[in-house]
């Protein structure tokens, strides 16, 4: 599907929120909210194409309990990105419910939906979507500031954990793909979401770098009790998560 224009979405108020890191080596931030439980209930979604309607999702039932990490797998074109965008509130289902902590997000008005995108979900896409004119530190703080969750100390800790401290004054074009992706992950974590929705976040990294980046994301989200729904093509990466589900012919097959 056409990826949403990430920057426009953020500027329209669609940024991230919320994550709690209770302990271990993280002094900050405070735990402001519960990690998110996501329940997708009998969701359908079709697209109109020049060849006629395409039924992409034909009745999806999927629950990610708070703190769980779930890998969403399936062939190219099976609807993984579509499902993630519905969960993120970037697109609406034709029928069924997307419940976040017990609230049906399709029933939220535009303002509450913007808050949902801003405070509760954090998105990591394969395209890094960094702002070219901002340096690393400013890219990371950008979403957190929009979400009213900027915390300099927390940001510094994240940058250290992700090996970005020495790169803070560089611009995106001065970074490797793996470094850019770590900035994108730091940016999401900095705004403290209750759930991370990640769409093939390591898909354009080499295997070793991709594995290292995913391990970091898992460590950080697990230590936070933060829920994670991760789209991946890779069985090897999927096996690192708590559970794997397969999307096939518009339904969850496992
Ligand atoms: P995946 O992420 O699993 O590769 P997608 O969710 O991107 O799959 O796409 C699922 C199907 O929906 C594909 O057949 C794709 O062509 C179609 N599709 C996605 N977005 C649109 C759109 N905006 N308009 C028409 N068809 C779309
Ligand atoms: Mg996709």
Descriptive notes:
By secondary structure, the protein is an alpha/beta fold. The chain contains eight helices and ten strands. Strands 6-7-8-3-9-10 form a six-stranded mixed sheet, with helices on both faces. The chain has one domain: Rossmann fold (3-Layer(aba) Sandwich), CATH 3.40.50. A hairpin with a 2-residue loop joins strand 4 (95-100) and strand 5. The longest helix is centred in the last third of the chain and has 18 residues, at 207-224. Helix 5 (152-161) runs antiparallel to helix 6 (177-190) and helix 6 (177-190) packs parallel to helix 7 (207-224). Residues 80-81, 199 line the site of magnesium ion.
Summarize it.
With 254 residues, the chain is of the alpha/beta class. It contains eight helices and ten strands.
Index terms:
254 residues; alpha/beta; Rossmann fold; six-stranded mixed beta sheet; four-stranded antiparallel beta sheet; 32% helix; globular; disordered N terminus; binds magnesium ion
Secondary structure: elements and pairs:
Layout: H1 6-11, E1 38-49, E2 52-64, E3 69-73, H2 80-87, E4 95-100, E5 103-104, H3 110-120, E6 121-125, H4 136-146, H5 152-161, H6 177-190, E7 195-199, H7 207-224, E8 227-231, H8 235-238, E9 243-248, E10 251-252
Parallel strand pairs: 3-8, 3-9, 6-7, 7-8
Antiparallel strand pairs: 1-2, 1-4, 4-5, 9-10
Helix pairs in contact: 4-6, 5-6, 6-7
Bound molecules: adenosine-5'-diphosphate and magnesium ion (MG).
Shape: globular
Q: Quickly count the helices.
A: 8
Mean pLDDT: 85
Strand order of the largest sheet: 6-7-8-3-9-10
Ligand species: adenosine-5'-diphosphate, magnesium ion
Which CATH architecture is right? 3-Layer(aba) Sandwich
Total individual domains: 1
Give the topology string: H per helix, E per strand: HEEEHEEHEHHHEHEHEE
How much strand content do the residues show? Answer: 15-25%
Quantity of strands, as a count = 10
Would you state the CATH class? Alpha Beta
